Amino acid sequence: MAWNEPGGGDQGDKDPWGNRDQDGPPDLDEAFRKLQANLSQMFGGGSRSGPSGGGGSRPVSMAMIGLILLVLVVIYGVMGVYTVDQQERGVVLRFGKKLDEVVLPGLHWNPPLVDQVMVENVTGVRSSSHDSEMLTEDENIVKVKMTVQYVVGDITAYLLNVREPDKRLYQATARALR
Description:
It contains four helices and seven strands, in the order H-H-E-E-E-E-E-E-E-H-H. By secondary structure, it is an alpha+beta fold. The longest helix is centred in the middle third of the chain and has 18 residues.
């Protein structure tokens, strides 16, 4: 049988997949009603009586409130866990104010939404290069390439004293070449 020919007499109006007898896609209203009924039973609301829904409902049980609070506390606790690698050090800001200690490598916890942790690599050698062409007094063009290599010594000063320290170093290098 070809695709464009009608089917055999024993199949009737069915398509090859057998979906012709269904009325259509699933009823979303019925799915939402079932979900609402399951949630109301889970939270102690019971089932509604009558079409008006005037049946009484029990308040949310204390065990359910305790379970929800426990889940929220666990999520809050997990959100505050972070690690600092061996090459890194960190600075903790509590409500924007720097705490005194530097965060050393390892697993740490700080309260989320209260503390902000800024972590930066302090053992890697960083470099900043600058190319420049200049005109000398005797009207010759000189092309100069300068590279500055550095290691972050004080993580607190690097992160908090100067905004965009890499950009500032690049600008200082460009001025020194002029």
